[in-house]
Write a structure and sequence with these properties.
Strand order of the largest sheet: 6-7-8-3-9-10-12-11
Radius of gyration: 22 Å
Shape: globular
Largest sheet: 8 strands, mixed
Structural class: alpha/beta
Mean pLDDT: 89
Oligomer: single chain
Low-confidence stretches: 120-129, 328-333
Number of helices: 9
Number of strands: 12
Strand content: 15-25%
Helix content: 25-40%
Distance between the termini: 30 Å
Length: 333
């Protein structure tokens, strides 16, 4: 069952030179309890897409449906309660946290904002079972959930390493009991050993709480490990979308093939030929009516420079690709 559905989503930014097409005509569906991986190079619109889905930035056009309800046309007042169900984990665990607040204060902030916690227990007896949980207990429960010791409750972000800081961000995202979380490159700023811990934590939380993720990254190895489905973005558009295993087994779009060719193989004898992209990158400001990847594509023909390819289903069911020549030289990685 679909938790989130996006129809023809657009996000443009007005610049002195024209409109920058950060997200352009995106259609996708995220099933409840699943993870959609979004990959692409820097500047392709991944983070803007994630922010538009949870209305951290308002879309220019298109529609977003969350649990069957359209949220794009809701007022901020109408959307306030819906926002509890949609949270975000940010890329930089240091800059996303207020350095003047302790760990416990950072985790408690969204709980206090939405007034979800109860008061202190009365001295004359225990609180009734239906009474809200006290704030302090909620904070300690969240710290335990994300693997933070209680002894860190009074410390500040600059006193912790990157992994623990990111656990604070995860605890804040979980504090309102969301159903959908946008993970915006949550491990890219961490050491490799810490990356594995955070990825395993996110997967455990998804299993235990039935969470739905959009996982944004530029690391193909990471997205293969955590995602059920993957969509590849290039200059604001989805150029390929399918199941995780299908993408690595049968890569159709030349841009996706170039991305996957960059994954290193831990072998001295089994080398992979790296696909190096050449040519000018199409400007995302008022882009012309052509394939945006055509100037860098090794298989581009004259038609690629005069028309925009549509995202269409290939011969493989559920495998979508935006390319006129997707059948020419498709390969698995």
């Amino acid at each position: 069952m679909a938790l989130l559905e996006v129809q023809q989503l657009k996000k443009y930014f007005d610049t002195p030179a024209g409109f920058l097409h950060a997200v352009d005509d995106v259609n996708l569906v995220i099933e409840r309890g699943k993870t959609l991986g979004v990959v692409g190079e820097s500047g392709c619109g991944k983070s803007t897409l994630g922010k538009a889905l949870i209305r951290m930035t308002d879309a220019t056009g298109g529609r977003i449906y969350f649990d069957g309800r359209e949220i794009t046309r809701m007022t901020q007042r109408q959307f306030k309660n819906m926002r509890m169900k949609m949270q975000m984990i940010f890329q930089d665990p240091y800059s996303s946290l207020d350095p003047r607040m302790s760990v416990s204060a950072l985790i408690a902030e969204p709980i206090k904002t939405y007034k979800l916690a109860g008061g202190r227990k009365k001295p004359d007896g225990p609180a009734p079972p239906e009474a809200p949980v006290p704030l302090e207990k909620m904070v300690f429960n969240l710290m335990e959930t994300v693997g933070l010791s209680k002894r860190f409750a009074g410390v500040y972000p600059h006193e912790l390493d990157g992994g623990r800081r990111q656990r604070i961000g995860i605890a804040r995202a979980l504090s309102l009991n969301p159903e959908f979380i946008v993970c915006d490159e949550p491990v890219s700023a961490l050491d490799v050993s810490i990356q594995a811990q955070i990825l395993n934590l996110l997967m455990d939380l998804q299993r235990d709480k039935q969470l739905t993720y959009m996982f944004i990254t530029h690391d193909m190895s990471v997205v293969k490990h955590i995602s059920d489905e993957i969509c590849v973005m290039y200059l604001g558009q989805i150029v390929e979308m399918c199941g995780s295993k299908e993408l690595f087994r049968n890569t159709l779009h030349p841009y996706s093939q170039a991305l996957l060719s960059a994954i290193p193989i831990p072998s001295l004898h089994n080398r992979r030929e790296r696909i190096l992209l050449k040519g000018e990158i199409t400007s995302p400001i008022n882009p012309t009516e052509r394939c945006r990847f055509a100037p860098r594509c090794p298989r581009a023909s004259d038609g690629c420079f005069t028309a925009v390819p549509e995202l269409k289903e290939s011969a493989a069911k559920g495998h979508y690709v935006r390319c006129f020549h997707y059948g020419d030289g498709g390969q698995g990685i």
